[in-house]
Amino acid sequence: MMFRTITTQGVAAVLFWVYLLAAGMAVYSAPAQAQPPLRVVYGFDREYPPFSFEEAQGKPVGFDVDLIQAVLKDENVQITMRPLTWDKVQVELSAGTIQVTSGMAKTKQRLLLYRFADRPSMPMQVKLFTKPAARVGNITLLRGQTVSVEKGSYQQRVLEEFGGLNIKLYDSKVEALKALERDEVIAYGGPAQTAYYYIDRLKLGPISAVGTPLVVADTYFAVNRDAERLLEMVNKGMLRVMQSGEYDRIYRKWFVPTFYVEEYQKMFEAARNAAINAYSPYSKTPVGAAVMTRSGRIVTGCNVENAQFNESITAIRTAVLKAVSEGEYEFRAVVAVAPDGSVQAPSAADRQFLFEFGRGILCAVEPEKGRVEMSMVSELLPYPYASRPESYQY
Question: Which residues constitute the signal peptide according to the record (predicted)?
Answer without folding.
Answer: none
